[in-house]
Amino acid sequence: MSGKAGDAADRALDDALALANDPRAEADRSRPPATDPLVVALGLGDAQPAPARPSRPAGSRPRPHTPPPPAPLDPVAVALLHGAEESADTGPRPPARRGEADRGGNGPADRGAGPAAAPPAERRTSSRTNSRTGGTGRADRVADPEGVATGGRKPPPPAERRRDARTADVTWSEARRIARQAGRRLGARVMPLGEEALGAALAEPLTALTDLPSFDSSAMDGWAVAGSAPWLLEGGLLAGQGSPPPLRDGRAAPIATGAVLPPGAVAVLRSEHGRTEERGDGAWLWVREPRFAPRPGQEVRRRGQECGRGEELLPVGTVVTPAVLGLAAATGYDELTVTARPRVEVLVLGDELLDHGLPRNGRVRDALGPMLPSWLRALGAEVTSVRRLVDDPGALRDAITAGAADLIITTGGTAGGPVDHVHPVLAAIGAKLLVDGVAVRPGHPMLLAELPGSTHTGGRAGSRIAGRAGSPAPGGGPFLIGLPGNPLAAVSGVLTLAAPLLRTLAGRPGPAPYAAALTADVAGHPVDTRLVPVVFDDESAARPLGFAGSAMLRGLAGADGMAVIPPGGARAGQETAVLDTGMLGPAWGSGG
Fold this sequence. Notes:
Residues 345-504 form the MoaB/Mog domain. By secondary structure, the protein is α+β, with helices and mostly antiparallel strands. It has 13 helices and 31 strands.
Protein backbone atom coordinates (compact mmCIF):
# COMPACT_ATOMS: atom_id res chain seq x y z
CA MET A 1 0.00 0.00 0.00
CA SER A 2 1.38 3.40 -0.90
CA GLY A 3 0.37 7.02 -1.31
CA LYS A 4 -2.10 8.91 0.87
CA ALA A 5 -4.35 5.91 1.47
CA GLY A 6 -1.46 3.75 2.60
CA ASP A 7 -0.05 6.46 4.81
CA ALA A 8 -3.44 7.00 6.43
CA ALA A 9 -3.78 3.29 7.10
CA ASP A 10 -0.33 3.16 8.64
CA ARG A 11 -1.11 6.16 10.82
CA ALA A 12 -4.30 4.49 11.99
CA LEU A 13 -2.34 1.36 12.86
CA ASP A 14 0.25 3.23 14.88
CA ASP A 15 -2.41 5.32 16.61
CA ALA A 16 -4.36 2.21 17.53
CA LEU A 17 -1.22 0.68 18.99
CA ALA A 18 -0.27 3.86 20.84
CA LEU A 19 -2.94 3.39 23.52
CA ALA A 20 -2.70 6.91 24.88
CA ASN A 21 1.07 7.24 24.79
CA ASP A 22 1.01 10.41 22.72
CA PRO A 23 0.18 13.79 24.29
CA ARG A 24 -3.14 15.02 22.99
CA ALA A 25 -4.34 18.56 22.35
CA GLU A 26 -5.49 20.35 25.49
CA ALA A 27 -9.01 20.70 24.12
CA ASP A 28 -9.29 16.96 23.68
CA ARG A 29 -8.12 15.94 27.14
CA SER A 30 -11.58 15.64 28.68
CA ARG A 31 -12.99 13.24 26.09
CA PRO A 32 -11.48 11.81 22.90
CA PRO A 33 -13.78 11.86 19.84
CA ALA A 34 -15.58 8.65 18.92
CA THR A 35 -13.48 8.41 15.74
CA ASP A 36 -10.20 8.54 17.63
CA PRO A 37 -8.21 5.41 16.62
CA LEU A 38 -7.47 4.73 20.27
CA VAL A 39 -11.17 4.77 21.10
CA VAL A 40 -11.93 2.56 18.10
CA ALA A 41 -9.16 0.09 18.99
CA LEU A 42 -10.37 -0.18 22.56
CA GLY A 43 -14.08 -0.09 21.73
CA LEU A 44 -14.77 2.98 23.90
CA GLY A 45 -17.44 4.78 21.92
CA ASP A 46 -20.93 6.01 22.82
CA ALA A 47 -23.33 3.05 22.51
CA GLN A 48 -23.38 -0.54 23.72
CA PRO A 49 -20.97 -2.26 26.08
CA ALA A 50 -18.46 -4.67 24.58
CA PRO A 51 -19.66 -8.28 24.22
CA ALA A 52 -18.02 -11.07 26.17
CA ARG A 53 -14.85 -12.53 24.71
CA PRO A 54 -15.40 -15.78 22.80
CA SER A 55 -13.28 -18.71 23.84
CA ARG A 56 -10.76 -20.21 21.42
CA PRO A 57 -9.00 -23.57 21.20
CA ALA A 58 -5.90 -23.96 23.34
CA GLY A 59 -2.71 -23.04 21.53
CA SER A 60 -4.39 -21.03 18.76
CA ARG A 61 -3.41 -17.46 17.94
CA PRO A 62 -5.67 -14.56 18.92
CA ARG A 63 -7.77 -13.04 16.21
CA PRO A 64 -7.12 -9.47 15.03
CA HIS A 65 -9.08 -7.15 17.25
CA THR A 66 -12.49 -6.15 15.89
CA PRO A 67 -13.90 -3.31 17.98
CA PRO A 68 -17.36 -3.92 19.44
CA PRO A 69 -20.16 -1.38 19.13
CA PRO A 70 -19.22 1.86 20.93
CA ALA A 71 -19.87 1.96 24.67
CA PRO A 72 -20.00 4.80 27.19
CA LEU A 73 -16.48 6.01 27.88
CA ASP A 74 -15.13 4.41 31.05
CA PRO A 75 -13.63 6.94 33.50
CA VAL A 76 -10.71 4.57 34.05
CA ALA A 77 -10.09 4.48 30.31
CA VAL A 78 -10.21 8.27 30.16
CA ALA A 79 -7.67 8.43 32.94
CA LEU A 80 -5.41 5.99 31.13
CA LEU A 81 -5.88 7.83 27.87
CA HIS A 82 -4.99 11.23 29.25
CA GLY A 83 -4.11 11.11 32.92
CA ALA A 84 -0.33 11.04 32.73
CA GLU A 85 0.12 13.70 30.09
CA GLU A 86 0.26 16.73 32.34
CA SER A 87 3.28 15.36 34.13
CA ALA A 88 4.77 14.33 30.78
CA ASP A 89 4.30 17.79 29.31
CA THR A 90 5.08 20.04 32.26
CA GLY A 91 7.00 18.13 34.89
CA PRO A 92 10.62 17.04 34.94
CA ARG A 93 11.40 13.64 33.48
CA PRO A 94 12.03 10.88 36.00
CA PRO A 95 15.61 9.76 36.50
CA ALA A 96 16.73 6.84 34.32
CA ARG A 97 17.26 3.30 35.51
CA ARG A 98 20.96 2.60 35.67
CA GLY A 99 20.57 -0.79 34.06
CA GLU A 100 19.30 0.91 30.91
CA ALA A 101 21.23 4.16 30.86
CA ASP A 102 24.54 2.42 31.41
CA ARG A 103 25.54 0.32 28.43
CA GLY A 104 26.19 -2.80 30.49
CA GLY A 105 26.35 -6.14 28.75
CA ASN A 106 23.69 -7.69 26.57
CA GLY A 107 23.42 -10.81 28.69
CA PRO A 108 21.02 -11.30 31.62
CA ALA A 109 22.18 -9.50 34.71
CA ASP A 110 19.30 -8.22 36.85
CA ARG A 111 16.78 -10.52 38.48
CA GLY A 112 13.23 -10.25 39.52
CA ALA A 113 10.61 -7.69 38.93
CA GLY A 114 7.54 -9.29 37.50
CA PRO A 115 5.17 -7.32 35.30
CA ALA A 116 3.11 -5.91 38.15
CA ALA A 117 6.10 -4.39 39.90
CA ALA A 118 6.67 -0.73 39.16
CA PRO A 119 10.03 0.14 37.59
CA PRO A 120 12.53 1.39 40.17
CA ALA A 121 13.67 4.97 40.33
CA GLU A 122 15.91 5.70 37.39
CA ARG A 123 18.89 7.92 36.83
CA ARG A 124 19.85 9.27 33.44
CA THR A 125 23.48 9.55 32.44
CA SER A 126 22.68 12.05 29.70
CA SER A 127 20.29 14.99 30.08
CA ARG A 128 18.08 16.32 27.32
CA THR A 129 15.80 19.17 26.23
CA ASN A 130 12.79 19.21 23.94
CA SER A 131 13.93 20.44 20.53
CA ARG A 132 11.85 18.56 17.99
CA THR A 133 11.64 20.37 14.68
CA GLY A 134 9.68 20.23 11.49
CA GLY A 135 7.32 17.51 12.63
CA THR A 136 9.99 14.88 12.14
CA GLY A 137 10.48 14.11 15.82
CA ARG A 138 14.24 14.67 15.45
CA ALA A 139 16.08 15.80 18.56
CA ASP A 140 18.63 18.30 17.21
CA ARG A 141 21.72 19.35 19.09
CA VAL A 142 21.33 22.55 21.17
CA ALA A 143 24.21 24.96 20.62
CA ASP A 144 24.28 27.61 23.38
CA PRO A 145 25.58 31.02 22.30
CA GLU A 146 29.19 31.39 23.30
CA GLY A 147 29.56 32.80 26.80
CA VAL A 148 25.83 32.76 27.64
CA ALA A 149 24.62 29.45 28.99
CA THR A 150 28.09 28.03 29.40
CA GLY A 151 29.44 30.53 31.90
CA GLY A 152 31.95 32.00 29.46
CA ARG A 153 33.15 28.66 28.10
CA LYS A 154 32.93 27.83 24.43
CA PRO A 155 30.24 25.31 23.57
CA PRO A 156 31.52 21.72 23.64
CA PRO A 157 32.28 19.96 20.36
CA PRO A 158 29.42 17.94 18.80
CA ALA A 159 30.78 14.63 20.08
CA GLU A 160 30.42 15.83 23.67
CA ARG A 161 27.43 18.12 23.41
CA ARG A 162 24.87 15.37 23.98
CA ARG A 163 25.99 14.96 27.58
CA ASP A 164 25.31 18.64 28.27
CA ALA A 165 22.08 19.10 26.30
CA ARG A 166 18.61 18.22 27.60
CA THR A 167 16.36 16.67 24.97
CA ALA A 168 13.04 14.95 25.61
CA ASP A 169 12.53 11.45 24.24
CA VAL A 170 9.96 11.25 21.46
CA THR A 171 6.84 9.24 22.26
CA TRP A 172 6.78 5.56 21.41
CA SER A 173 4.17 5.81 18.65
CA GLU A 174 5.84 8.91 17.21
CA ALA A 175 9.14 7.03 17.01
CA ARG A 176 7.42 4.19 15.13
CA ARG A 177 5.88 6.68 12.74
CA ILE A 178 9.18 8.43 12.11
CA ALA A 179 10.83 5.09 11.40
CA ARG A 180 8.05 4.04 9.06
CA GLN A 181 8.16 7.31 7.10
CA ALA A 182 11.95 7.69 7.03
CA GLY A 183 12.55 5.32 4.12
CA ARG A 184 11.00 4.51 0.78
CA ARG A 185 10.29 1.18 -0.80
CA LEU A 186 13.40 -0.35 -2.35
CA GLY A 187 13.67 -1.17 -6.03
CA ALA A 188 12.07 -4.14 -7.75
CA ARG A 189 13.90 -7.40 -8.44
CA VAL A 190 12.89 -10.16 -10.84
CA MET A 191 13.57 -13.46 -9.13
CA PRO A 192 13.10 -17.09 -10.20
CA LEU A 193 10.02 -18.78 -8.87
CA GLY A 194 11.42 -20.68 -5.89
CA GLU A 195 12.63 -20.51 -2.32
CA GLU A 196 14.81 -17.46 -3.00
CA ALA A 197 11.66 -15.38 -3.40
CA LEU A 198 10.13 -16.51 -0.08
CA GLY A 199 9.66 -13.62 2.32
CA ALA A 200 9.92 -10.91 -0.33
CA ALA A 201 6.93 -8.70 -1.11
CA LEU A 202 5.33 -8.45 -4.53
CA ALA A 203 6.39 -5.27 -6.34
CA GLU A 204 3.73 -5.81 -9.00
CA PRO A 205 0.25 -7.32 -8.71
CA LEU A 206 0.07 -11.03 -9.41
CA THR A 207 -2.32 -11.32 -12.34
CA ALA A 208 -3.49 -14.54 -13.94
CA LEU A 209 -1.61 -15.39 -17.12
CA THR A 210 -4.34 -17.83 -18.15
CA ASP A 211 -7.73 -19.11 -17.11
CA LEU A 212 -7.46 -21.38 -14.09
CA PRO A 213 -8.28 -24.18 -14.73
CA SER A 214 -7.39 -23.65 -18.37
CA PHE A 215 -9.81 -26.40 -19.52
CA ASP A 216 -12.80 -28.32 -18.24
CA SER A 217 -11.52 -31.29 -16.22
CA SER A 218 -12.63 -34.04 -13.91
CA ALA A 219 -12.55 -33.35 -10.18
CA MET A 220 -12.73 -37.07 -9.27
CA ASP A 221 -11.76 -40.51 -10.48
CA GLY A 222 -14.80 -42.11 -12.13
CA TRP A 223 -16.57 -41.96 -15.47
CA ALA A 224 -17.36 -39.07 -17.78
CA VAL A 225 -20.98 -39.56 -18.85
CA ALA A 226 -23.15 -38.19 -21.67
CA GLY A 227 -26.94 -38.53 -21.40
CA SER A 228 -28.68 -40.72 -18.82
CA ALA A 229 -27.97 -44.20 -17.40
CA PRO A 230 -27.15 -46.83 -18.34
CA TRP A 231 -24.09 -45.93 -20.40
CA LEU A 232 -22.05 -48.04 -22.78
CA LEU A 233 -18.37 -47.81 -21.82
CA GLU A 234 -15.69 -46.83 -24.31
CA GLY A 235 -12.07 -45.71 -24.24
CA GLY A 236 -10.36 -44.22 -21.20
CA LEU A 237 -9.15 -40.74 -20.22
CA LEU A 238 -6.02 -39.98 -18.21
CA ALA A 239 -4.56 -36.65 -17.03
CA GLY A 240 -2.11 -35.05 -19.44
CA GLN A 241 -3.32 -36.88 -22.57
CA GLY A 242 -4.52 -33.80 -24.40
CA SER A 243 -7.93 -33.21 -25.95
CA PRO A 244 -10.07 -36.37 -26.21
CA PRO A 245 -12.66 -37.07 -28.92
CA PRO A 246 -16.29 -36.14 -28.26
CA LEU A 247 -18.40 -38.43 -26.10
CA ARG A 248 -21.69 -39.47 -27.72
CA ASP A 249 -25.04 -39.54 -25.94
CA GLY A 250 -25.55 -42.70 -23.88
CA ARG A 251 -21.80 -43.35 -23.65
CA ALA A 252 -19.34 -43.14 -20.74
CA ALA A 253 -15.56 -43.20 -20.52
CA PRO A 254 -13.37 -43.98 -17.49
CA ILE A 255 -11.66 -40.74 -16.43
CA ALA A 256 -8.93 -39.83 -13.92
CA THR A 257 -8.81 -36.76 -11.72
CA GLY A 258 -7.45 -33.81 -13.70
CA ALA A 259 -8.07 -35.32 -17.13
CA VAL A 260 -9.67 -33.18 -19.82
CA LEU A 261 -13.44 -33.62 -19.93
CA PRO A 262 -14.42 -34.78 -23.43
CA PRO A 263 -16.86 -32.66 -25.45
CA GLY A 264 -20.40 -33.89 -24.94
CA ALA A 265 -19.83 -35.09 -21.36
CA VAL A 266 -22.26 -33.51 -18.93
CA ALA A 267 -20.95 -34.82 -15.60
CA VAL A 268 -18.62 -37.23 -13.85
CA LEU A 269 -19.93 -40.20 -11.89
CA ARG A 270 -17.67 -41.07 -8.98
CA SER A 271 -16.08 -44.51 -9.10
CA GLU A 272 -17.72 -45.49 -5.78
CA HIS A 273 -21.15 -44.46 -7.07
CA GLY A 274 -21.23 -46.67 -10.17
CA ARG A 275 -20.99 -50.34 -11.12
CA THR A 276 -20.15 -52.02 -14.39
CA GLU A 277 -21.74 -55.02 -16.01
CA GLU A 278 -20.44 -57.06 -18.93
CA ARG A 279 -23.00 -57.92 -21.63
CA GLY A 280 -22.79 -59.39 -25.04
CA ASP A 281 -22.66 -55.95 -26.68
CA GLY A 282 -20.01 -54.59 -24.32
CA ALA A 283 -19.50 -53.23 -20.83
CA TRP A 284 -22.25 -51.11 -19.35
CA LEU A 285 -22.16 -48.56 -16.49
CA TRP A 286 -25.01 -48.32 -13.98
CA VAL A 287 -25.65 -46.02 -10.99
CA ARG A 288 -25.46 -48.02 -7.75
CA GLU A 289 -28.43 -46.18 -6.21
CA PRO A 290 -30.80 -43.61 -7.67
CA ARG A 291 -29.59 -41.02 -5.22
CA PHE A 292 -26.13 -41.19 -6.82
CA ALA A 293 -27.38 -40.20 -10.26
CA PRO A 294 -25.08 -37.37 -11.44
CA ARG A 295 -26.45 -33.91 -11.98
CA PRO A 296 -25.21 -31.78 -14.89
CA GLY A 297 -21.79 -30.35 -14.02
CA GLN A 298 -21.26 -32.67 -11.05
CA GLU A 299 -17.58 -33.36 -10.20
CA VAL A 300 -16.46 -31.11 -13.05
CA ARG A 301 -13.92 -28.30 -12.73
CA ARG A 302 -15.03 -25.73 -15.26
CA ARG A 303 -12.52 -23.59 -17.17
CA GLY A 304 -11.89 -20.29 -15.36
CA GLN A 305 -13.63 -21.50 -12.21
CA GLU A 306 -10.80 -20.12 -9.99
CA CYS A 307 -9.83 -17.11 -12.09
CA GLY A 308 -9.91 -15.69 -15.58
CA ARG A 309 -6.94 -14.54 -17.62
CA GLY A 310 -5.83 -11.04 -16.61
CA GLU A 311 -7.61 -11.14 -13.24
CA GLU A 312 -5.64 -9.69 -10.30
CA LEU A 313 -4.97 -12.48 -7.84
CA LEU A 314 -2.80 -10.72 -5.24
CA PRO A 315 -1.99 -7.03 -4.72
CA VAL A 316 1.35 -5.27 -4.45
CA GLY A 317 2.89 -5.81 -1.02
CA THR A 318 1.73 -9.40 -0.58
CA VAL A 319 4.47 -11.38 1.14
CA VAL A 320 5.60 -14.36 -0.91
CA THR A 321 4.74 -17.53 1.00
CA PRO A 322 4.81 -21.14 -0.21
CA ALA A 323 1.14 -20.78 -1.15
CA VAL A 324 1.93 -17.68 -3.26
CA LEU A 325 4.64 -19.66 -5.07
CA GLY A 326 2.13 -22.41 -5.76
CA LEU A 327 -0.51 -20.01 -7.07
CA ALA A 328 2.01 -18.22 -9.29
CA ALA A 329 3.21 -21.53 -10.72
CA ALA A 330 -0.36 -22.74 -11.33
CA THR A 331 -1.16 -19.70 -13.42
CA GLY A 332 2.00 -19.90 -15.48
CA TYR A 333 4.72 -17.79 -13.82
CA ASP A 334 8.40 -18.72 -14.03
CA GLU A 335 9.61 -15.67 -12.07
CA LEU A 336 8.22 -12.98 -9.81
CA THR A 337 8.82 -9.24 -9.57
CA VAL A 338 9.37 -8.49 -5.90
CA THR A 339 10.74 -5.65 -3.79
CA ALA A 340 14.37 -6.17 -2.88
CA ARG A 341 15.01 -7.26 0.66
CA PRO A 342 16.72 -4.56 2.74
CA ARG A 343 20.34 -5.52 3.32
CA VAL A 344 21.19 -5.32 7.01
CA GLU A 345 24.54 -5.46 8.78
CA VAL A 346 24.61 -6.12 12.53
CA LEU A 347 27.45 -4.68 14.62
CA VAL A 348 27.61 -6.12 18.13
CA LEU A 349 29.59 -3.75 20.35
CA GLY A 350 31.26 -4.49 23.67
CA ASP A 351 34.57 -5.62 25.14
CA GLU A 352 32.65 -7.48 27.85
CA LEU A 353 30.96 -9.94 25.49
CA LEU A 354 31.81 -13.61 25.00
CA ASP A 355 30.77 -15.64 21.97
CA HIS A 356 31.01 -19.08 23.57
CA GLY A 357 31.14 -20.83 26.93
CA LEU A 358 29.94 -19.73 30.34
CA PRO A 359 29.98 -16.12 31.53
CA ARG A 360 33.19 -15.57 33.49
CA ASN A 361 35.60 -12.98 34.83
CA GLY A 362 33.05 -10.18 34.72
CA ARG A 363 32.16 -10.91 31.10
CA VAL A 364 28.78 -12.01 29.74
CA ARG A 365 27.60 -14.01 26.75
CA ASP A 366 26.50 -12.19 23.64
CA ALA A 367 22.75 -12.85 23.42
CA LEU A 368 21.98 -10.44 20.58
CA GLY A 369 24.38 -11.80 17.97
CA PRO A 370 22.59 -15.18 17.87
CA MET A 371 19.11 -13.67 18.29
CA LEU A 372 18.89 -10.74 15.88
CA PRO A 373 19.72 -12.20 12.43
CA SER A 374 16.83 -14.67 12.17
CA TRP A 375 14.48 -12.13 13.72
CA LEU A 376 15.46 -9.52 11.13
CA ARG A 377 15.02 -12.05 8.33
CA ALA A 378 11.49 -12.72 9.58
CA LEU A 379 10.90 -8.97 9.21
CA GLY A 380 11.90 -9.16 5.54
CA ALA A 381 15.61 -8.32 5.75
CA GLU A 382 18.63 -9.96 4.16
CA VAL A 383 21.26 -10.06 6.90
CA THR A 384 24.59 -9.76 5.10
CA SER A 385 26.90 -9.92 8.12
CA VAL A 386 27.06 -10.04 11.92
CA ARG A 387 30.30 -8.62 13.33
CA ARG A 388 31.68 -8.19 16.82
CA LEU A 389 33.50 -4.93 17.48
CA VAL A 390 35.62 -3.81 20.42
CA ASP A 391 34.77 -0.57 22.19
CA ASP A 392 36.83 1.67 19.93
CA PRO A 393 35.44 4.71 18.11
CA GLY A 394 37.80 4.25 15.18
CA ALA A 395 36.74 0.66 14.63
CA LEU A 396 33.08 1.66 14.85
CA ARG A 397 33.54 4.52 12.39
CA ASP A 398 35.34 2.28 9.91
CA ALA A 399 32.63 -0.37 10.14
CA ILE A 400 29.85 2.16 9.58
CA THR A 401 31.47 4.05 6.72
CA ALA A 402 32.68 0.91 4.93
CA GLY A 403 29.26 -0.73 5.00
CA ALA A 404 27.17 -1.28 1.87
CA ALA A 405 23.91 -2.08 3.60
CA ASP A 406 20.53 -0.36 3.52
CA LEU A 407 20.47 -0.54 7.32
CA ILE A 408 23.19 -0.94 9.93
CA ILE A 409 22.09 -2.09 13.37
CA THR A 410 24.37 -1.58 16.35
CA THR A 411 23.86 -3.07 19.79
CA GLY A 412 25.04 -1.16 22.86
CA GLY A 413 26.86 2.14 23.07
CA THR A 414 23.80 4.40 22.70
CA ALA A 415 23.76 6.01 26.15
CA GLY A 416 26.30 8.44 27.63
CA GLY A 417 28.83 6.15 29.27
CA PRO A 418 32.61 6.38 28.87
CA VAL A 419 32.71 3.74 26.11
CA ASP A 420 29.43 4.63 24.40
CA HIS A 421 30.76 5.77 21.05
CA VAL A 422 27.72 5.63 18.78
CA HIS A 423 26.66 9.27 19.18
CA PRO A 424 30.16 10.77 18.77
CA VAL A 425 30.83 8.66 15.67
CA LEU A 426 27.51 9.60 14.08
CA ALA A 427 28.22 13.27 14.76
CA ALA A 428 31.71 12.96 13.29
CA ILE A 429 30.53 11.45 10.00
CA GLY A 430 27.65 13.92 9.57
CA ALA A 431 24.75 11.53 10.18
CA LYS A 432 21.27 12.99 10.60
CA LEU A 433 19.59 11.92 13.83
CA LEU A 434 15.89 11.21 13.24
CA VAL A 435 15.14 9.66 16.64
CA ASP A 436 17.39 10.17 19.67
CA GLY A 437 15.73 8.51 22.62
CA VAL A 438 12.20 7.12 22.90
CA ALA A 439 9.78 7.35 25.81
CA VAL A 440 9.49 3.59 26.20
CA ARG A 441 10.65 1.10 28.83
CA PRO A 442 12.73 -0.87 28.37
CA GLY A 443 14.89 0.56 25.62
CA HIS A 444 14.63 4.33 25.83
CA PRO A 445 18.24 5.09 24.69
CA MET A 446 17.56 3.74 21.16
CA LEU A 447 18.20 5.93 18.12
CA LEU A 448 17.61 6.15 14.37
CA ALA A 449 19.94 8.04 12.05
CA GLU A 450 20.23 8.60 8.32
CA LEU A 451 23.79 8.08 7.18
CA PRO A 452 25.43 10.20 4.49
CA GLY A 453 25.81 8.72 1.01
CA SER A 454 22.88 6.87 -0.61
CA THR A 455 24.37 5.84 -3.95
CA HIS A 456 24.35 2.04 -3.76
CA THR A 457 22.18 0.13 -6.24
CA GLY A 458 21.53 -2.92 -4.13
CA GLY A 459 22.03 -5.53 -6.87
CA ARG A 460 21.75 -9.20 -6.03
CA ALA A 461 23.37 -12.28 -7.45
CA GLY A 462 20.76 -14.56 -8.98
CA SER A 463 18.30 -11.76 -9.63
CA ARG A 464 18.02 -8.92 -12.07
CA ILE A 465 17.06 -5.33 -11.43
CA ALA A 466 13.73 -4.26 -12.88
CA GLY A 467 14.77 -0.84 -14.07
CA ARG A 468 17.71 1.14 -15.43
CA ALA A 469 21.00 -0.39 -14.30
CA GLY A 470 23.30 1.85 -12.29
CA SER A 471 20.59 4.22 -11.05
CA PRO A 472 20.54 5.06 -7.32
CA ALA A 473 18.43 2.66 -5.33
CA PRO A 474 15.14 3.88 -3.92
CA GLY A 475 14.71 3.65 -0.20
CA GLY A 476 16.60 6.67 1.09
CA GLY A 477 19.26 6.19 3.67
CA PRO A 478 21.31 4.20 4.30
CA PHE A 479 20.12 4.14 7.90
CA LEU A 480 21.53 3.18 11.26
CA ILE A 481 19.50 1.98 14.22
CA GLY A 482 21.28 2.00 17.55
CA LEU A 483 19.82 -0.56 19.93
CA PRO A 484 20.56 -0.59 23.66
CA GLY A 485 22.88 -3.37 24.78
CA ASN A 486 20.49 -5.05 27.22
CA PRO A 487 18.57 -7.83 25.45
CA LEU A 488 14.95 -6.94 26.20
CA ALA A 489 15.73 -3.26 25.66
CA ALA A 490 17.19 -4.19 22.27
CA VAL A 491 14.02 -6.14 21.43
CA SER A 492 12.03 -3.03 22.27
CA GLY A 493 14.17 -1.17 19.76
CA VAL A 494 13.55 -3.80 17.10
CA LEU A 495 9.78 -3.53 17.54
CA THR A 496 9.83 0.27 17.81
CA LEU A 497 12.26 1.29 15.06
CA ALA A 498 13.54 -1.68 13.04
CA ALA A 499 10.21 -3.36 12.25
CA PRO A 500 8.46 -0.23 10.84
CA LEU A 501 11.52 0.86 8.83
CA LEU A 502 12.11 -2.60 7.38
CA ARG A 503 8.43 -2.92 6.43
CA THR A 504 8.69 0.30 4.44
CA LEU A 505 11.95 -0.62 2.73
CA ALA A 506 10.73 -4.14 1.92
CA GLY A 507 7.33 -2.96 0.68
CA ARG A 508 5.44 -5.03 3.23
CA PRO A 509 2.09 -4.11 4.75
CA GLY A 510 1.85 -3.54 8.47
CA PRO A 511 0.36 -6.34 10.57
CA ALA A 512 -3.21 -5.92 11.76
CA PRO A 513 -3.30 -4.73 15.38
CA TYR A 514 -5.08 -6.87 17.88
CA ALA A 515 -6.08 -6.33 21.47
CA ALA A 516 -6.48 -8.59 24.46
CA ALA A 517 -7.74 -8.19 27.99
CA LEU A 518 -5.07 -8.38 30.68
CA THR A 519 -5.41 -11.09 33.30
CA ALA A 520 -3.58 -9.05 35.95
CA ASP A 521 -2.75 -5.48 36.84
CA VAL A 522 0.41 -4.17 35.19
CA ALA A 523 2.22 -1.23 36.71
CA GLY A 524 3.28 1.46 34.29
CA HIS A 525 6.04 4.00 34.09
CA PRO A 526 4.87 7.48 35.17
CA VAL A 527 5.26 9.04 31.71
CA ASP A 528 6.64 6.39 29.35
CA THR A 529 5.10 3.45 27.50
CA ARG A 530 5.99 -0.02 28.78
CA LEU A 531 6.33 -3.10 26.59
CA VAL A 532 5.66 -6.25 28.60
CA PRO A 533 5.88 -9.88 27.41
CA VAL A 534 2.53 -11.69 27.59
CA VAL A 535 1.18 -15.14 26.79
CA PHE A 536 -2.40 -15.81 25.66
CA ASP A 537 -4.72 -18.07 27.57
CA ASP A 538 -7.52 -20.23 26.15
CA GLU A 539 -9.87 -17.23 25.99
CA SER A 540 -7.39 -14.95 24.22
CA ALA A 541 -6.67 -12.96 27.37
CA ALA A 542 -3.09 -11.77 27.85
CA ARG A 543 -1.26 -13.00 30.93
CA PRO A 544 1.72 -10.79 31.79
CA LEU A 545 4.95 -12.69 32.28
CA GLY A 546 7.66 -12.10 34.83
CA PHE A 547 11.35 -11.57 34.19
CA ALA A 548 10.63 -8.44 32.15
CA GLY A 549 13.71 -6.47 33.17
CA SER A 550 15.72 -4.76 30.45
CA ALA A 551 18.56 -7.31 30.68
CA MET A 552 16.26 -10.36 30.73
CA LEU A 553 15.04 -12.67 28.00
CA ARG A 554 13.35 -15.35 30.11
CA GLY A 555 9.91 -13.77 29.91
CA LEU A 556 10.20 -12.98 26.21
CA ALA A 557 11.30 -16.52 25.35
CA GLY A 558 7.90 -17.85 26.46
CA ALA A 559 5.83 -14.93 25.14
CA ASP A 560 3.19 -14.77 22.42
CA GLY A 561 3.54 -11.01 22.09
CA MET A 562 4.40 -7.73 23.79
CA ALA A 563 1.59 -5.83 25.48
CA VAL A 564 1.62 -2.05 25.12
CA ILE A 565 1.11 -0.59 28.60
CA PRO A 566 0.27 3.13 28.72
CA PRO A 567 1.79 5.54 31.25
CA GLY A 568 0.39 4.88 34.69
CA GLY A 569 -0.26 1.18 34.02
CA ALA A 570 -3.27 -0.94 33.16
CA ARG A 571 -5.81 -2.91 35.17
CA ALA A 572 -6.81 -6.55 34.99
CA GLY A 573 -9.63 -6.92 32.48
CA GLN A 574 -8.64 -3.84 30.54
CA GLU A 575 -7.96 -4.40 26.85
CA THR A 576 -4.59 -3.33 25.56
CA ALA A 577 -2.84 -3.59 22.21
CA VAL A 578 -0.48 -6.52 21.74
CA LEU A 579 2.42 -6.46 19.31
CA ASP A 580 3.12 -9.61 17.34
CA THR A 581 6.85 -10.03 17.81
CA GLY A 582 7.26 -12.12 14.66
CA MET A 583 9.50 -14.55 16.53
CA LEU A 584 7.16 -17.50 15.99
CA GLY A 585 6.82 -16.92 12.24
CA PRO A 586 9.01 -18.48 9.55
CA ALA A 587 11.24 -16.47 7.23
CA TRP A 588 8.20 -15.22 5.30
CA GLY A 589 6.45 -13.90 8.44
CA SER A 590 5.88 -10.23 9.27
CA GLY A 591 5.71 -9.21 12.85
CA GLY A 592 6.09 -5.89 14.67
